[in-house]
Design goal:
Strands 3-2-1-4-5-6-7 form a 7-stranded parallel beta sheet, sandwiched between helices. It starts with a helix and ends with a helix. It is globular. The protein has a single domain, classed as Rossmann fold, CATH 3.40.50.720. Helix 5 runs parallel beside helix 6. The chain is built from 11 helices and 7 strands. 59% of the residues lie in helices and 11% in strands. It has 336 residues and is an alpha/beta fold. One of its GO terms (cellular component) is endoplasmic reticulum membrane.
Length: 336
């Protein structure tokens, strides 16, 4: 009996080693080359504040030309002046466009055509425009579901459609979709928000299959709670259960998140995560997402089972938070 077990174990080791050897042979052939940003044209939607502005600063520090897109012209002008302080040469330009990327695809296409006439073809598009609404499913007005899908999903579809054809013609490009950890795991209070961020991943996976033969690489960023104006605004109305769950992890600085997103994007990495928890979550929820290196394959193979158990522990903790909140509310209602 023990001999049979050892034989099965040995066979398993051989299969794993053969699989890793195959990955080692195949991956270097298909792995992307780093795309330098010096002289590149980078478009950032939602670029007037938060992660978007920090992404623009990081790209500008590396010598890129920047087009910022957002709705508020005053904020755009302020962001432009701030970003220009980080120039590395006197040729760099920061251009901005006041535009709602979630409305009128034809208008978005016209605006980006004008941006390309000013600064040249788009080398990297960072879809960072987004918003969040928090609340219980039945308490959120149905119009808010439509609004979030327009801003968070279509607001990434329209700009991407406007630049992808030229990228394919040039056989060069990077497209970034800024999702969220709430786009990897659904949490209490985020029924409207999570669904839009999950949608970005589906778009990114399908699009990557289509554009990879043209040397275009897609990155999905999954930032955690980040200290941005949008996060501060959301926190003022966040329901108790969601607030308690959010407090189990720390809040990141937007410049730190931006550096990671830019680094992963120029390297052509599909999934971009922040911190140990984010890395664990990305491995755990990887599914059939593309992998960019042998290291990623090894991590998934070695840690997936352990991370799955750890995730169940986290989810159990979140469930406990929700149950305690419900019990507290029921007790309060009975007292009243």
């Amino acid at each position: 009996m023990s001999g049979a077990v050892l034989l099965v174990a040995a066979a398993g080791v051989v299969v794993v080693l053969a699989f890793l050897l195959l990955l080692y042979i195949v991956l270097p052939v298909s792995s992307p080359k780093t795309m330098p940003l010096s002289g590149a044209h980078v478009v950032v939607t939602g670029g007037s504040s938060g992660i978007g502005k920090c992404v623009a600063i990081e790209c500008f520090k590396q010598g890129a030309f920047i087009t910022l897109i957002a709705r508020n012209e005053c904020r755009l002008l302020e962001a432009k002046k701030e970003i220009e302080k980080f120039s590395v040469n006197d040729k760099q330009v920061v251009h901005y466009i006041s535009l709602d990327v979630s409305k009128d695809a034809a208008n978005v296409e016209r605006a980006l055509k004008q941006a390309q006439e000013k600064l040249g073809p788009v080398d990297m598009l960072v879809n960072c425009a987004g918003t969040s609404i928090n609340g219980k499913f039945e308490d959120i007005d149905i119009s808010k579901f439509e609004q979030l899908m327009a801003i968070n999903y279509l607001g990434s579809v329209y700009p991407t459609r406007a630049v992808v054809t030229t990228m394919k013609e040039r056989r060069r490009g990077r497209i970034v979709f800024v999702s969220s950890q709430a786009g990897q795991v659904g949490l209490f209070g985020y029924t409207a928000y999570s669904s839009t961020k999950f949608a970005l991943r589906g778009l990114a996976e399908a699009l990557q299959m289509e554009v990879k033969p043209y040397n275009i690489y897609v990155t999905v960023a999954y930032p955690p709670d980040t200290d941005t104006p949008g996060f501060a605004e959301e926190s003022q109305t966040k329901i108790l259960e969601t607030k308690l769950i959010s407090e189990t992890s720390s809040v990141c600085k937007p410049d730190h998140v931006a550096r990671i997103i830019v680094k992963d994007a120029v390297q052509g990495k599909f999934a971009s995560s922040v911190g140990t928890d984010g890395h664990m979550l990305t491995i755990l929820t990887g599914g059939m997402s593309p992998i960019s290196s042998l290291a990623e394959a090894l991590q998934a193979l070695i840690f997936l089972g352990f991370f799955r158990l750890l995730a169940l522990y986290y989810i159990a903790g979140f469930d406990s938070i929700v149950r305690r909140c419900m019990a507290k509310k029921e007790k309060s209602e009975k007292t009243d």
